[in-house]
Specification:
Blueprint lengths: L2 H18 L3 H8 L3 H8 L7 H11 L3 H6 L15 H5 L3 H11 L2 H14 L3 H13 L5
Length: 140
C-alpha cells in the first residue's frame, strides 16, 4: 500500500471510530484485530493487506474505496451483493460476529480437523458442520 493510501486508511479508521463513539480497544474488537495492530493502523505506522481492508469495509459497512481514498460510498450494504446474500441479509451483525468467533476458536478448528476424515470432507466443511451443530443446540 502506498504511503498516501496508508495515511488515508489511518484517517478513515479514526473517522469511523469517532463516528461510532468507540475506544481503540472497542474498534479493534469490532474489526477483529489486536489493539496493538489497530493502534498502529490508525496512527499510520503500518499498512494492511487488501484482504484485511475488505474485511474492515464489510465490518464497517463501507466501501474499500472509501477506506482507501475517502471517495465513493461511505455506507454500503455489504450483505446484498454477494452470492448467498439472501441468507446473510437475514443475519444480524451480532450473529455474524458469533459465527466468525466460532470459526476462529482453536478448540473447534482442532475438532473439525479430527472429524474431517471420518466425515470424508475438508476441514472447512467439517468446521461448518461443528458450528451448525453448536448453533442448533447439539453437543460437540
Amino acid at each position: 500500500m502506498a504511503n498516501d493510501e496508508q495515511n488515508i486508511v489511518a484517517q478513515q479508521l479514526r473517522y469511523f471510530r469517532k463516528k461510532l463513539g468507540l475506544k481503540q480497544s472497542e474498534m479493534a474488537q469490532r474489526l477483529g484485530v489486536s489493539v496493538s495492530l489497530y493502534s498502529k493502523l490508525e496512527s499510520g505506522q503500518i499498512d494492511t493487506t487488501s484482504r484485511r481492508l475488505e474485511q474492515f469495509a464489510a465490518r464497517l459497512q463501507t466501501s474499500v474505496e472509501f477506506l482507501t481514498t475517502g471517495q465513493g460510498p461511505e455506507h454500503v450494504d455489504n450483505y446484498t451483493t454477494a452470492p448467498g446474500s439472501e441468507e446473510l441479509s437475514r443475519l444480524s451483525l451480532d450473529a455474524l460476529e458469533r459465527l466468525v468467533g466460532l470459526a476462529q476458536d482453536p478448540k473447534l478448528t482442532t475438532l473439525a480437523e479430527q472429524v474431517a476424515p471420518t466425515l470424508r470432507v475438508t476441514s472447512q466443511r467439517a468446521l461448518a458442520v461443528v458450528i451448525r451443530t453448536i448453533l442448533l443446540g447439539g453437543q460437540t
